[in-house]
Structures are given as C-alpha cells and as structure tokens.
Amino acid sequence: MIRAVKVRLLPTEEQEKQMWKSAGTKRFIYNWTLAKQEENYKNGGKFIKDGVLRKEITKLKKGELSWLYEVSNNVAKQAVKDACIAYKAFFKGLAEKPKFKSRKNSRISFYNDNVALEVKEDKVLIEKVGWVKLSEVNSIPIGVKYTRPTVSYDNKYWFISVGIEQEGNTLELTGESIGIDIGIKELAVVSSIEKPFKNINKTKTVKKLEKKKKRLQRKLSRKYDRLKSEKTFKKGERLKKTNNIIKLEKQSKLVDRRLSNIRNNHIHQATNAIVKTKPSRVVMETLNIKGIMKNKHLSKAMQNQCLYEFKRQMKYKCEFNGIEFVEADRFYPSSKMCSCCGAIKKDLKLSDRVYKCECGLVIDRDKNASINLANYKLVV
User: Fold this and answer.
1) Which of 63, 195, 216, 291 could disulfide-pair with 252, CB 3.0 to 4.6 Å?
2) What is the pLDDT, as a whole number, of residue 44?
3) 180: closest CA among 55, 69, 315?
4) pLDDT tens digits, residue range 15-59?
5) Which domain holds residue 224?
C-alpha cells in the first residue's frame, strides 16, 4: 500500500518566489490545455493526446512562452497530463466537466519529478528551486522509491507530500461486524460504541470562526462595491486591489485554513478511534450527497460535515489494517427497519429522532440504523 508523507518546508524568499512561479505555470498550462481541447471539440476534431500538446508547448517555449524555461519542464508536462485525464473522465461519464483554474479559488500546488527528487535528513531537492529545508529531521525516509511528489501551499505554509510503499498493519481482529450511521446531527453513530462522535460544527470554537469569516466577507464585499462605484472604474476592466483588500483576503484565507484543519483533525480522530476497536468488518451507509447538496436547507450543514472525507479516510484505514469495508445499498432501509424484530416502519419521518416499534423497542433512530448496518449481509 502507498502511504503519503506530508512535511512542512522552510524555503527562503528566493525559493518561495520560484515556487510561486511553478504553481502559476501549472495553473496556466492546465487552463491552456483545457482551452485547446474545448476549441478542438467545437470544431469537430477528436481528442488531442497529451504527447501532441507537449510538443506544441516545446515549440511555444522558443517564442511566446519563453518564460517557461524559468521553471521545471516536468511541471508543464504533468499539468497537460492532468488536464487530459480530467477531460477523458468527463467524456466517459466518470466525473463532471473540468473547470478552468482561477487565481482566487484553485489549489496552489505543482508536481516534482520523482526521479529528480533527492532527500537528505533535513532538506529536500526540488527542481529549479534547490535544496529546501524541512521543518522535521528524518521525516521522509531516504533510499526508497517515491511516487508523485507534490509541493503545495495552504495559505500559510509550503508543504511537500510524497507517496511511499508500505506494508499494512496486521491487527488481531475481534471478528465483530460494526455499522456506522453518518449524518448531520452527529458526525457518526457506531453500533459498538456507546457515545456518538459529535458534530464539530456545533462547538463554540467553530461557531466563532464562522462568524469571523462572515464579518470579513462583508467587509470585503463593501470595499469591492466602493471600488466598482468609483467614476474611474469602467466595466470589463480588472479591479486594482487596495492594500486593505489584500489584508482582508489574507485574513479570510487564514480563517478558512483553520476551519479546514479543525474539521479534518476531528475526522481523523473519529476514524482512528473506530479502527482501534479492531472490528473484522465495517459497514457504512451510502448517502446521495449530490442530491442532498441540492437542498438549500441542508446543503451548508452537509458541506461543513465533510462526510465524503469521513468515508474516504475510513476506507483507506480499513484497507491498511486488513479490515473489510462494505458500503450498504443506497435503498437499504437501515433507519426504517427495527433492529429487534425486522419490521419496517414506512411512515418514519426525518423529524422522528426516536424509533418506536410495535414489538416494544424504543431506541435512538441513528443507533437503530447503525445496528441494522452491522447486520447488513445477514439480512440481505
């Protein structure tokens, strides 16, 4: 199994400038590739292979895009490859149509060739950047095969992540099957654990940060409106940001970063606690997250809960520890079925938080669902 190792970098000012150039090049080439593919498709042409586009970039280097020589050749190559893969996946119906990467919202990152990557105890060699210090000594194993090294920026620090082949853990499993019911009220309710894993978005810390984020966004919106209302500004022109706008944008990004880290850390703690119970099988329900996101009353709560990330982490941690991971059928009535007698309550509403059955069972709705999920294969 390939395990990812992510370490913070400590670049100098010159090295950081070079990283920004590489990240900007990746974004530019990705957008250029998408534009080429779309233009070719509109004119009735077939899909352009990434090898053909790479040759075209090599020609453009000698003329219009001579600045590409300032960054590593592999950054542009990988950007073309990523854009082509995304376009192929769209036509096969495996993903949505790829969008152009904007300067504001796109993830700041770039690829480094795994063959050219060199690692020492306290530093790493990045193409066209040089030897960059690592924040932790001996954090990346030396003398092993690396896969897809990526340098990224999280609005505060630079990081490098590499994939390393590693054998999975061999745990002494209990032979128990557990069910996990995920939702908005609680993050997860597990059949074998009494206390549910709470919704971190209901805590004071997260609520305060959300309020701070709203205030900053309002300030930004007002300042942009003032700029647009000025007589000197013409429609279609690019806005020249003031120093105050730049400061507010930085503050807003840092709040977003902190919120993301809090939520991600909470999900890691929850998934680790479940895996430490050493079950032989984990069963999770399959939610129609895209469908729920269309509901204006639930979309924000669903987005903040990060349920897809919870499932992703649960899946790879089960695989790493030799635990069987099962996804129940989307139409399996885990909430409507009685975990005691098996009767199905068709008139159960979303507002009914306690499940009451004619057999006398009175139990929390989510706990009942998790028990049914634990017995999924036995019933089906």
Assistant:
1) 216
2) 87
3) 315
4) 999 999 999 999 999 999 999 999 998 988 889 999 999 999 999
5) 201-269
Number of independent structural domains in the chain? 2
Average pLDDT over residues 120-124: 94
Residue listed under structure tokens 């309002």: 218
Pairing, β 281-284 against β 177-182: parallel
Q: What tokens does 239 get?
A: 């806005």
Tell which of 241, 269, 297 closes a domain.
Answer: 269
Q: Is residue 188 part of a domain?
A: no
For the chain, count helices (H), then strands (E): 10, 13
Q: Examine the domain organization and report whether 159 and 209 are in the same domain.
A: no
User: 328 by DSSP, 3-state: which?
Assistant: coil
pLDDT score recorded for residue 231: 65
Which tokens go with 169? 């853990």
pLDDT, averaged across the chain: 91
Alpha-carbon gap, residue 368 to 51, rounded angstroms: 55
State the first-to-last Cα distance of the chain, in angstroms, to the nearest integer: 31
Separation between Cα atoms, residue 238 and residue 268, nearest integer Å: 42
CA distance 319 to 326: 11
CA distance linking residue 322 with residue 92, whole number of Å? 32
Q: What pLDDT, in 10s, does the model give residues 287-300? A: 877 787 888 888 88
Give the separation between CA 342 and CA 251, rounded to whole angstroms: 53
| Rg of the chain taking only CA atoms, in angstroms | 25
Q: What count of residues does the chain have?
A: 380
pLDDT in the model for residue 286: 83
pLDDT digits (tens, 9 = 90+) for 61-117: 988 899 999 999 999 999 999 999 999 999 888 888 999 999 888 999 999 999 989
Under 8 Å between Cβ of 2 and 147: yes
What is the DSSP code string of 79-133?
A: HHHHHHHHHHHHHTTSSPPP-PPPTTTS-EEEE--TTT-EE-SSEEEETTTEEEE
- Identify whether 280 is part of a domain: no
